[in-house]
Amino acid sequence: MTGTTYGIVAGYDGSPGAAQALRWAAREAFARGTTLTVCLAWTPDHMELPTESDLCDLARQHGQEILTRGLPYAESVLGPGRVHPDLAAGPAARVLCERSRTAEMVVVGSRGHSELPGLRLGSVPWQLAGHGSGPVVVVRGAWRPANRVPGPVVLGADGSPAGQDAITFAFEEAALRAVPLVTVCALTDTPGRLGGSHQVEEDFEHAVAVAAKEHPEVRVDRHLLAGTPRAALLSAAAEAQLLVVGARGRGGFDEMSIGSIAQAVLLYAPRPVAVVRPAT
Q1: What pTM was computed for the model?
Q2: What confidence tens digit (pLDDT) does each residue in 99-153 have?
């Protein structure tokens, strides 16, 4: 992405999910040869603190201590010169959305410290996926299973213009990992008009073929399925190391910040999910 200032941004709050996301982000930054910004938003989401107060100073200091504890692993992967701490004031979702506009991608865990137990997805990744810019990766599940060959990258696509950035990102990720790319296009939810399925299939094949020419090193396994996109993608994700979708497909409403398929995989996919929105 031209003009980026943050490289890859990892949202961090010291929670186990954030630590997992930070490990993923550090390896991604290493593979891409870019920098890693470790961002901690120290202002609590549920309260406003006076700018100049002892309570504000304590919250900021506590945030700095947590952030400092999170840096050693990233520095061991990338070296200190490529890891940048970012202690930010403001609610985490707002801060990360702002950072996403000048970052290559933003990476977060599925739940942070402040989320209620049992939530499948916390409010920060949910808001970020709906309102961020560019790729947003929500890390969950065993993305590096022991004693197993690394799985493929799985792409959910319908050939719509809204999904073009997701296709490009998925090919990049498969090339970085030297693994196959499994493309999944399910036809059940296609527009209810005559020839709709045929048009989706044609657009899907064309979009993937164009991207494949840019990455001839990537083996592409194309899957056209009669089932629903949600079921098809969640089934394919079981063996994947990363699932990639666009924020909205051709069936969504223009005012929707995130489509139903992206919502479903964010909630139920057993692996890291990348939701790719057009850069703004």
Answers
A1: 0.88
A2: 999 999 999 999 765 555 556 688 899 999 999 999 999 998 766 666 678 899 9
Which residues of the chain fall short of a pLDDT of 50? 1-2, 190-195, 252-255
Q: What is the 3-state secondary structure (H, E, C) of the chain?
A: CCCCCCCEEEECCCCHHHHHHHHHHHHHHHHHCCCEEEEEECCCCCCCCCCCCHHHHHHHHHHHHHHHHHHHHHHHHHCHHHEEEEEECCCHHHHHHHHHCCCCEEEEECCCCCCCCCCCCCHHHHHHHHHCCCEEEEECCCCCCCCCCCCCEEEECCCCHHHHHHHHHHHHHHHHHCCCEEEEEECCCCCCCCCHHHHHHHHHHHHHHHHHHHCCCCCEEEEEECCCHHHHHHHHHCCCCEEEEECCCCCCCCCCCCCHHHHHHHHHCCCCEEEECCCC
